[in-house]
Structure formats: structure tokens, C-alpha cells
Amino acid sequence: MAPRRKKIYEGKAKVLYEGPEPGTLVQYFKDDATAFNAQKKATIEGKGVLNNRLSEYFMTGLTNIGVPNHFIRRLNMREQLIRQVEIVPLEVIVRNFAAGSISKRLGLEEGTPLPRPIVEYSYKNDALGDPLVPEEYIIAFGWANQQDLDDIVSLALRVNDFLSGVFYGVGIKLIDFKIEIGRVWDGDFMRLIVADEISPDSCRLWDIKTNQKLDKDVFRRDLGSLTDAYSEVARRLGVLPTNATNIKPTLIN
Ligand code: UDP
């Protein structure tokens, strides 16, 4: 599809275009999937449509409980209007159960409940493979200050409580997730808001009864169809694309 707007940035799963008004952007969700720092790549039909819908659903829910975020409105199957932010160069990870890198690092079996939600940070840098960084580094290098970090933890824990409850209600355990945070200015006053996306690309989601994985680990670990997994999440939440010409009809019934 030929872009109608000026491209601002292209990432692994999304493209950002200039928005219709100053301070806005259009976020386009691609079907591309990457894992292991983009060493594994594929195009997965329908993923972008599902993630556009799912991110809309979660961001709208967050707005409704007063958690500030970049989402303004969905424009079409693959695009949403968002607030332009200055991204804090951190991946903010919240963990409720051990999985992935924390399991490896600490020798914890995947699925082990953690004593409390753990918030950790990776420095957003593809060339370095997004290394885990302590608060000390973040403050010393000026990526965020202590006040920002306090606000980020508070946002991350509110997102965690909201998402955990929403997923629990549809029989899904929220193992962990990643969010990104953006800065916006009202005059001289800076605020931090939730940005980027919230979708099964950036969460670990396990069926409560069977522990079946319904997230990007299906792709990372070759566990079956990613579109089927994401469609199942969307179906349970009642979030299904209308007018879905780009995803297989059997997946949206
Ligand atoms: N995550 C992500 N993008 C990244 C790294 C991690 O969305 O670049 C998400 C990942 O999907 C999982 C959580 O953050 O839900 C924790 O990931 P972890 O640190 O265990 O890393 P991984 O095992 O994915 O390398």
C-alpha cells in the first residue's frame, strides 16, 4: 500500500506517519513479526489488524480508568491516531510470574509466581540487544530522573492491575508485559504517558486452565499459528475486526 502521508519512523512491527494535526501521529500496524532481536522474521497475515484492535481496546480501557496514554482514536483496520510523544528510551517490563529472561537469569521454572510484581528496565538499543539496566544507569545517563522513574513505576503498576484483571476475566493469566513511556508537554509542564502499543506482541499470556500460550512466544518458539492465538485473545475479549478483508474469515467468526 502506498503511504498517503509522510513517514516519520519505521520500526519492526509498526510505521509512524505524520498526523493530521500538530502533535499527532498515525500509527500503522504491519503484519511483520520479529524475535530474538530481529534474527527471526516472518510476515503473519492479520497480525497488524488484530494488534491495532487490541491496542485500541487496552488503551481505551486505561483512559477510562484515568491512566494517561497516547491513544486518540482508531482510523481504520490498521491505523490509529495517537499523540506524538518523546519516547523515553526504556522498555519497562512488569512481571507477575517468571518466564523468558528472568527464568534464565535466576534459574526459575517458567510460570513460578513472583513474590510481588517486579518492574525492570531495558535500554532501548537494538544494536546492543536492549540490555537490562539498573535505575542507577538510567539516572546517571539522564534517560530519566528519579521523579520520572517514580511516575513510571506507578503507571506500570496501574497498567499491570488493569490488564491482569481484564485478562483474568477471560481466563487468561498475565505472566509479564512490556510498555513504553512517552513525554508530552503542556507548556513548560512535562507529563509521562503510556505510548507505543499494548498487544500480545508485548505480553506473555497463558490460558489459566491449560497454560496454553496465546502470545508472541507462539512465534518465538514455533508453537503453532500466531494468528490463531491472537484471534483467540481478541475473541475472548469481544474485540474482533469488523469488515476484516485482510484476515482469514474463519479466524473472525
Ligand atoms: N518484550 C517486548 N519487547 C522486547 C523485549 C521484551 O515486548 O524487546 C516483552 C516480552 O514479550 C515479554 C516481556 O517483555 O512479555 C518480558 O520479556 P523478557 O525480558 O522475558 O525477554 P524475552 O524472553 O522476550 O527475550
From TrEMBL:
GO molecular function: phosphoribosylaminoimidazolesuccinocarboxamide synthase activity
Enzyme Commission number(s): 6.3.2.6
Highest taxon of the lineage: Bacteria
Pathway: Purine metabolism; IMP biosynthesis via de novo pathway; 5-amino-1-(5-phospho-D-ribosyl)imidazole-4-carboxamide from 5-amino-1-(5-phospho-D-ribosyl)imidazole-4-carboxylate: step 1/2
Catalytic activity: 5-amino-1-(5-phospho-D-ribosyl)imidazole-4-carboxylate + L-aspartate + ATP = (2S)-2-[5-amino-1-(5-phospho-beta-D-ribosyl)imidazole-4-carboxamido]succinate + ADP + phosphate + 2 H(+)
Keyword Transit peptide listed: no
Residue stretches making up the SAICAR synthetase/ADE2 N-terminal domain: 7-236
NCBIfam families from the UniProt entry: purC
Family statement: Belongs to the SAICAR synthetase family.
HAMAP family assigned: SAICAR_synth
UniProt-recorded name of the protein: Phosphoribosylaminoimidazole-succinocarboxamide synthase
Organism (species): Sedimentimonas flavescens
